[in-house]
Write a structure and sequence with these properties.
By secondary structure, this protein is an alpha/beta fold. It has two domains: 145 residues, Rossmann fold (3-Layer(aba) Sandwich); 64 residues, no CATH class. The chain has nine helices and ten strands. The chain has a six-stranded mixed beta sheet, with helices on both faces. It is globular, with a radius of gyration of 19 Å.
Length: 251
């Protein structure tokens, strides 16, 4: 079966000389819920940007369901829904407008856009808020809008970059339920998150990246099953110092 996402020896070097991604390779099967972990600056977002055409790889190959994401960008991009970490929307637009406009970006007709927007407004419980300006919404409602926007084209691969950042516990769990439902429907999901509980709850396979390279990967249960669980495995793989209380000095 053709993988949902295949990345082979991806490297990205910016004009400044900064090596953001240094030889990353990974394969995500169709229908997987994949956790992509790492500290800030590890290369997660750059990998996502190269996959979705926001950045151009320096070298390497990216395929989305067998389609070259660089050479055949438009065809590959139609298969992807991106929920970015930032709220990159017109803050004076309404949730309906934001979702509808993205449908237009993908070439959807007016009738199809309306039907899809109606469905997403209902699914994400946005109907009471759909005509408010984005700037008037709470942080949690804003997250729902950008997630709904990512789904307007009914993508086969959904990429979520810190989708619950700044969301309270109750709403985070609501969003988790939405994501689990989408995954059960057959959607492939790539998730980056700093909430290890979120990854443990949702993902079946995990890759940990540090300094632009994958430093550990495997089934979530296997990695989390090691002494200290996923957190200890993450700290060890990324070379982070574990929390500790310094011993008192003896006078």
């Amino acid at each position: 079966m053709t993988p949902a996402l295949s990345i082979s020896h991806l490297r990205k070097v910016y004009r400044s000389g900064t090596v953001a991604v240094d030889d990353i390779s990974l394969t995500i099967p169709e229908g997987e819920f994949f956790g992509f972990l790492g500290p800030n600056g590890a290369g997660k977002s750059t990998t996502i940007h190269c996959t979705t055409g926001i950045a151009e790889p320096t070298s390497g190959k990216i395929e989305i369901f067998g389609i070259d994401a660089v050479k055949n960008y438009r065809e590959a991009r139609r298969l992807v829904g991106l929920c970015p970490q930032e709220f990159n929307v017109d803050v004076f637009a309404t949730p309906r407008q934001i979702v509808d406009w993205m449908g237009g970006y993908f070439g959807m007709g007016a009738k199809e856009r309306k039907e899809r927007t109606d469905l997403l407004m209902e699914r994400f419980e946005m109907i009471p808020h759909q005509k408010k300006m984005f700037r008037e919404l709470s942080g949690g409602l804003k997250r729902r809008v950008v997630l709904a926007r990512a789904l307007v084209n009914d993508p086969k691969l959904i990429i979520l970059d810190e989708p619950t950042a700044g969301v309270d516990v109750e709403l985070r769990r609501t969003l988790w339920r939405y994501l689990q439902e989408i995954n059960k429907e057959g959607k492939t999901i790539l998730l980056t998150s700093h909430y290890l509980e979120e990854v443990e709850r949702l993902c079946r396979y995990v890759a940990i990246v540090a300094r632009g390279r994958i430093v550990r990967e495997g089934p979530k249960d296997e990695i989390a099953g090691t002494p200290g669980g996923l957190e200890e495995a993450y700290l060890e793989a990324t070379g982070a110092e574990p929390d500790h209380v310094p011993a008192a000095k003896v006078p």
